[in-house]
Amino acid sequence: MNNPLLVMNQGDASEARVYYCAHFVAESLGFFAREGVNVEFTTAQSGGHTIQGGQVPAVLAGEADLTIGGPMVIMKNHQDNGPALVCFCAAVAGNPWYLAAANPQPAFSIAALRGKKVVDVGNVGTASLCFRWLLEQHHLAEDDITLIAGSGDIQQDFAAVAAGEIDYALHSLHALAPAVASGELALVQSLSPLTGAVPWSAYIARPEVVAAHRPAFQAFTRAIGLALAWLHENSAEKVSALIAPFYPDYPLPALIEAVRGYQQSRIFADSTQISKQDFGHFSDILQQAGWLAQPAPYDALVDSRLTDGRE
């Protein structure tokens, strides 16, 4: 008997980030097939940080069964009374954004940003909101630092930091790693330990699709669990060699740098379970940052039955 097929939309090219690599690991090592499901990867033509852009419209239109993205999107969607969506499997369990500078700063602290210029290179909603929240937690007001929106040209922004025209770059390690591996920039702070444990990214689907194909979604979730364990158990070099074909234009030294950094910061989820406590913490951050008007309801937005053994 052939395994059931799930179609997963990965979003546009900007969504193919290193911290989303668990499904590539599962595919490469045959975990999907072993657990009894086939997965077809598709892409979107344009990006976006809400349900109107990127990979989510394909799920809502029935063109894809699932996708991967930020739970903040479905939190906001629920608040706005949008179409029902649920997270059902963890992928990224921490803030994958970093601060980088022209030179290493071993004694760096967030307080060191006072009076400095920081370029928010990616201008990505979740990261920008969380960074502003972090500043508030460290008693830094908006006028205590100069926060500059990215120019849209990553290399230009990185060059400005390398030249000392801007003090720090804020971006994901996926984006920063090539500049770090080449020696252009140096990492000074992972934002994951400062933000705390949050379900930054998860696999998302429509609840009626999960219900209709529950065995396939359970198999998918088991395979991702195996992939996450493998990511924690193997070296950055071994992980990078495995996933390199999925990042054909990404230099291998940079890929190793990114994987190693994400392993050290515990960015890859420890399990497929989306913690209610971590979900609540993320909801609190987004509410304090002004993205949400009220707490996001865990039970309405997370289908934990695929990971806790219940049918």
From TrEMBL:
Domain SsuA/THI5-like: from-to ranges: 22-235
Superkingdom as given in the UniProt entry: Bacteria
InterPro entries referenced in this protein's UniProt entry, alphabetically: SsuA/THI5
UniProt KW keywords: Signal
One Pfam family cited in the UniProt record for this chain: NMT1
Compartments, record wording: Periplasm
Family affiliation: Belongs to the bacterial solute-binding protein SsuA/TauA family.
Identification of the protein by name: ABC transporter substrate-binding protein
